[in-house]
User: Fold these one by one.
Assistant:
Number 1:
Amino acid sequence: MVFVDILISFLLQLVFTVGVIFLFGFLIACCNRAFYGNFGRRGRAVCYITGFFGTPVHELSHALMCILFGHKIVDMKLFQVSDEDGTLGYVAHTYNRRNIYQQIGNFFIGIAPIVVITALLYLVAWLLLPAMTSEFFSAIGNINLSEGFVSVMVCLFHAIGVFFSYAVQWQWWVFLLIGMLLSLHMTLSGADIKGALGGLALVAVLLFAADLIMGLISMPVLNTFTQYCMVAAGYLLSFFAIALVFALLALIISLPFRSRR
């Protein structure tokens, strides 16, 4: 019975943290793909324009995680116009395959654009709209994933409502423009996903080992840890929801161009 409780805690932690990251990453990628698709033959040109701003941030987020996890950067392009495969930028890195810490780093390097760009959006929000940011954080502080889907959605929509209530200020529109340019380049490439999945297996094994130790020592300790993970997941959910809103707004703006292709 104890082992079942440990397994349930592990699955909750994994699904509501890593699962949230991959879910919103997928939804944002779908919006971005549709956005560029609406421009038809002009899609690549539009991608170059937005990529001039978003791609360097995307690649620098990879580079940041490479540095934090001890990977060696052997080559890096922050932005390029490529007619061959459409690659706008890249970070080539190597690591010691015997080093567990560096292996774990593959996961965080792979998902870096989603996490880092979302964090950057909140930094920009804090600089441009500190009152909105404070009110938004107060709203999402009420999110408790253990209370059920309806309760979470009510809190989430309230937080998003706070976000849109500041649209009367010019700073909000500047934030909107920055947010759309960055969110359009949060999409993970195939190489990003492959690298992240390679590190995810080790992350999951280590997390389960930690849960197993905590659960065997004291279930209340494990339950407390799981609760903290759920609270963190609530913040992740709110953060990514705003990034998804930016991607959806960009998609809506592109719709009139669909009929002109």
Number 2:
Amino acid sequence: MYSVSPQQNSEAARPFLTWQRIIDWAQEHYRIRNFSKDERVPTRPGLLYLVQKGAVRLVGTAQVNATGSNAARLARVSPEEAFLGFVGTGQPFEIVAQSPFTLQAYAHVDQTSVVWMYWHDLDNWPHFRREVLDAFRYQHQRKLLWLSTLGQRRTIDRLLGFLTLLIEEYGEPTDEGYCLPFPLTHAQIGSAIGSTRVTVTRLMGKLRQKGMIRTQGDNLLCLPTDSVLNRNEGSPNRN
């Protein structure tokens, strides 16, 4: 059976009263804010962020130091953002400063709501602290799978593996199978797997022809139900 994501598990297991107390606390202390689609979420290292509603898109840029003639040329080129993944409703994230890389967060859909707090604020909710730490451990495991996927030599294998990981984690059941609940551009996919928008568009066409992926509505990406079921039957339950 399709395994439920930690996002769904946390929503079901977390006592509503605890989550509501956190939201009430955040509103009382002005620690919650709504964001429009693609609006940057202001972050700084050392703080904990919780997605109360919507989805947050994480991206990274690498700053290249250059000298001589290359410096003038690179100064005219905007640093390209690499898509690093999503943080869904009910999930935590933090931004770690590590030169020469810059990490940023953006609201991926309208009405995305984010709570921020210091780590010691979690002392008010010890059970919730354990849940946050479990969520970070799960995210670490998923990143290892992501790195394994990006190690594939063929671009089409990286593409299919990347889409499978995303849809397994965030997909919702529909008539077309399991679909991402929010759109993802070919340029964003290309930046995630080390390819170009043109190449992703071409390979997406091949995957559609083979029936390995589908689209629904506003170009929402889907995996056929059989593909998801077969993959999960061969792997241990994530719960």
Number 3:
Amino acid sequence: MGIGVAVVGLGWWGRELARAAGHAPDLDLVAGVSPDAGERTSFAQDFGCAAGPVFADALADPGVDAVLIATPHSLHAEQVMAAAQAGKHVFVEKPFTLTAASGRAAAGACRDAGVVLAVGHNRRLSSAAARLRSLKEQGALGTVLHLEGHFSSPSALSYRPDMWRAQRAEAPGGGMASMGLHIVDTVQWLFGPVRRVSCLARHAAAPVDIDDVTTALLEFDSGLTATLTSLFATALDAWLRICTTTGIYAARDDFTRLTHTAMDGTVEDLPLEPVDTVVEELSRFAAAIGGKGRAAVTPEDAIANVAVMEALAASAAADGAWRAVER
């Protein structure tokens, strides 16, 4: 018998976690949780498991060893703590929480309960990101001069006012919480902590009252600089460019492709092995539960990312004034 998991939140990403759980070694999907009856019925039919409306019922189920949380961002902290108190291991989608303080409290609850806590920042598990880290460790990047990151989606153009993702409280800094934070996690994993940020955010096109244009300047502890843009009302695109004295390395097409532009302008595709990053992060979660490794993204990593998100939102509220990242 494997590790029994319940998916909490059965929307688009909850279903993606359920799909991935079916391919991750040692995980058995046993339940889904959603207040929406239609979502529960569809999920139960598609994944062949039970589905109920009450989170506490899943926590009380002896067949549930772990929960995979894909609920509104504002619920993460309290749900993580409730799961920890029930002795359940926790995988929670990013952002881990909406504040670093609540993230520390949630992480502390898991630590005190002795349960594994993992957070879903899957881009760092891509072959492109792994290859970039290897190149950096080998010294092949030379001197890194500057980073450029971008993550956009047309999602907000179809949002309705009654959707949780359409609420400003759930989208600090516009698309940073749902999209840009993937870039933040990847660059901090590669190049260390961000020290301070300057950010501008505005509402331009979405039919709901959230910011859909967000752009920021980041400065790292090392002095490295980066620009980051997240757009909520244009075509889906995600990439990271690393500008160095040995050329420009670009993780393209949502981190599925890596190119190197040499100093003479020639462009080379670097070979990569495809990775299902969601299956990989859940596989590492399962391994950590079994004492055979550690989660791909630690609570400390996730809290550091939330701290950057908080600073970005605070800077945007202050018309781009520099804000230090809380430590």
